[in-house]
């Protein structure tokens, strides 16, 4: 009988913190910029330069740790992780090993078989390294230290995940938490969130963990899924052939859908960690923690529950609305202005997401005033404009943030509600389309839509289609009775 295997996965996730300045100096953390312009003696590792801890980094790390239900170490310490690499000018990275800021937390995820807790082993603060740029034309490598000293937190999970789907659910949850806390934008593609996957397999029913490998260079959920499935199959194949899995770091090439060994996996002892003598122990006062606890934002899950209860929205709608904090904020503010949550939700989920998708925009790039959408919703509700025109106006709000009532007036889009005028238009259409009218009377329902369309056209689209339908029906049916 073929053996059954179980996959054991733990994650190390690096999250770049969105502070304005670096962790140990006052240099800007802004992305981009000419190489080596956001640098100083500290973040380029000049001899004698001394690091000074940025308090905002500690605050962001604590916010994240509390949201992950972690315990806090006070004091926590910084350690030197020693290794040589050209993008690391000090020849050590300032990190935390012995007393990290947070430990023993958990994240709850949704899986196919219900809710599951993924335990957090520890979370620590550290500095990012610079970046090597390999120039193939001139056959040399250049180094850019703008990224050197950007604050990171590393979140290390216990090996509690069993499938790629659970890994993706865990990462999505982490990303949502960090975005709602506004401590990071967590963009996998830009590297502000990076995941290393530790994976091993074991025969189902056994308790000992197999030898694990670590996979790096995973920059999308799809790549992570493919890499996990590929690595699981590779390890099972080795075991089936009676070979051993080697503990090593592997690099995933998503284009070739293949991973290759980079180096044998180091252990902590290889880095000769020791407490950084330049940095004081960090004492965290209970009052500060209490303040941070009290000021946690409303997270996606809480919003979902509230939207369903308070606004009577569907489960599907609230999932979409809370996918990003920015979207949820737009929705809430629009609702505040118009007092109609259902309509606000429909505009957000329908037209807003459609236009964003059409343009390939990230949710965070949507920038219209909620007040303008709120005004438009009220105008539609009063029947002053029909749905088709409302969509046109909304496009203008979405792209140019125009003021709707002014725009509608200027462009003559107000719906004609004068029944006399409408009746007159309908009469004309009936007179001009005797064939269609006859067909309708003979029971061909389709022609009714055609006649509505014709009437709307003579009104230049500025009529209430419901009213047109009603008047048209009255007139056609009345005549039909007479004949
Ligand atoms: Zn600096």
Question: Could you characterize what this model shows?
Answer:
The chain has 483 residues and is an alpha+beta fold. It has 3 domains: 283 residues, no CATH class; 113 residues, no CATH class; 64 residues, Arc Repressor Mutant, subunit A, CATH 1.10.10.410. The chain is 41% helix and 20% strand. The protein has 15 helices and 14 strands. It has a 9-stranded mixed β-sheet. It has a 3-stranded antiparallel β-sheet with strand order 4-3-14, with no helix packed on it. Helix 3 links the parallel strand 11 and strand 12. The protein is elongated. The model has no long low-confidence stretch (mean pLDDT 91). Bound molecules: zinc ion. The site of zinc ion has 8 residues, from loops. The site of zinc ion (ZN) has 8 residues, from loops.
Labels describing this entry:
483 residues, alpha+beta, Arc Repressor Mutant, subunit A, 3 domains, nine-stranded mixed beta sheet, 14 strands, binds zinc ion
Topology:
Elements: E1 5-16, H1 55-67, E2 71-72, E3 79-82, E4 92-95, E5 102-111, E6 114-127, E7 131-135, E8 140-144, E9 151-157, H2 164-181, E10 193-203, E11 213-218, H3 221-240, E12 248-253, E13 258-264, E14 274-275, H4 286-294, H5 300-311, H6 315-321, H7 325-338, H8 341-358, H9 370-381, H10 387-400, H11 404-410, H12 419-432, H13 434-441, H14 446-458, H15 465-482
Parallel strand pairs: 11-12
Antiparallel strand pairs: 1-9, 1-10, 2-5, 3-4, 3-14, 5-6, 6-9, 7-8, 10-11, 12-13
Helix pairs in contact: 2-3, 5-6, 7-8, 7-9, 9-10, 12-14, 12-15, 13-14, 14-15
The structure holds zinc ion.
